[in-house]
Design brief:
The chain is 58% helix and 17% strand. With 171 residues, the protein is an alpha+beta fold. It has 2 domains: 124 residues, Ribosomal protein L10, N-terminal RNA-binding domain (Alpha-Beta Plaits, 2-Layer Sandwich); 44 residues. The chain is elongated.
Length: 171
């Protein structure tokens, strides 16, 4: 890499760190090309990015961002997964790590909060932003459904009472 390519790489990574809701650092322990392709596709599906970067350039890129605490994690063959949704990248990485032992979760960060590997796994167990939105919409709609049921219930009860009296008098 020449100097201008390095500057472009640092600028790109800095942009990734500036926009990300969460960043996960992994260590490649001999992933094949096919496995890496599967991982990249899974990460892309959830709207995240996965980039293998030179450690010295990644350390330069995190300087001045909320993710400065990640600088110590950039040792060995590392890769960076980032997403705007704080849970998406963590879920994809943890799910993939369950299928192979050739990737190690080193740590991560949500803003200024630095996470170790167990913290990333805990983050992955949380519901994603879309799941939370669905739950919230369900909670908002539930009272309206209950009100509609309550509004029709008294009339139905009255009809059953009148029907019971009619049957009683007929007998």
């Amino acid at each position: 890499m020449d100097r201008s390519q390095k500057a472009d790489s640092v600028a790109y990574l800095n942009g990734v760190f500036s926009e990300a809701g969460a960043v996960i650092i992994t260590r490649n322990l001999g992933l094949t090309v096919a496995q890496t392709t599967v991982l990249r596709n899974k990460i892309r599906e959830v709207g995240a990015t996965y980039k293998v970067a030179k450690n010295s350039l990644a350390k330069l890129a995190v300087a001045g961002t909320d993710y400065e605490g990640l600088g110590d994690f950039f040792t060995g063959p590392t890769a960076i997964a980032a997403s705007v949704d704080p849970v998406a990248a963590a879920k994809a990485i943890v799910e993939f790590a369950k299928t192979t032992d050739k990737i190690e979760i080193v740590g991560g960060s949500m803003g200024t909060q630095v996470l170790n590997a167990d913290g990333v796994k805990a983050l992955a167990s949380m519901p994603s932003l879309d799941e939370l939105r669905g739950t919230l919409i369900g909670l908002i709609q539930a009272p309206a459904t209950k009100l509609a049921q309550l509004a029709t219930a008294p009339a139905a009860k009255l009809a059953r009472v009148f029907s019971a009296y009619a049957e009683k008098e007929a007998a």
